[in-house]
Amino acid sequence: MCLAAPARVISISDNVATVDYGGVETKCRLETLTEEIAVGDFVLIHTGFAIRRLSPEDGEETLRLFDELAASLAEDAARPKPVEGPERNLGNSTVSLGEQSHLARAAQEDHSEHRQES
Questions:
Q1: 3 state SS of 118
Q2: 9 in Cβ contact with 19 (< 8 Å)
Q3: Closest CA to 51 of 30, 26, 22
């Protein structure tokens, strides 16, 4: 499955369009399209060929939706996740039950040594 992001057409020469992907310029071939393309239109590109024309309104709306999706994913990634399974979240780190047992034994041994010294 492929995902195509809209690219704004900034110039056309013969059957080649120069397009802008949010500041990154590239070229694409236009032979696969049956409709006329104009500067300012958006196109969807696959393997260097424009496969669909989008109106400027549809292209802008699609980019706005992509921005919303990216912001939502960033917010979700920044949100702390509850630990599932045999792990527990201890402050800023996640520790498995095995590691917890090891840490508890080490702490207990350390505590026992201090008691014996007293």
A1: coil
A2: yes
A3: 30
* pTM, full prediction: 0.60
- The answer to whether the CB of 37 falls within 8 A of the CB of 53 is yes
* CA pair distance 111, 103, nearest whole angstrom: 12
CA gyration radius for the chain?
28
State yes or no: pLDDT of 4 exceeds 60: yes
Torsion sign, CA atoms 32, 38, 43, 49: positive
pLDDT in tens, 37-94: 999 999 999 989 999 999 999 999 999 998 899 888 888 778 776 665 555 555 555 5
Please state, in angstroms and rounded to a whole number, the distance separating the CA atoms of residues 113 and 90.
26
6 CB-near residues (< 8 Å, 6+ apart):
42, 43, 44, 54, 58, 59, 62, 63
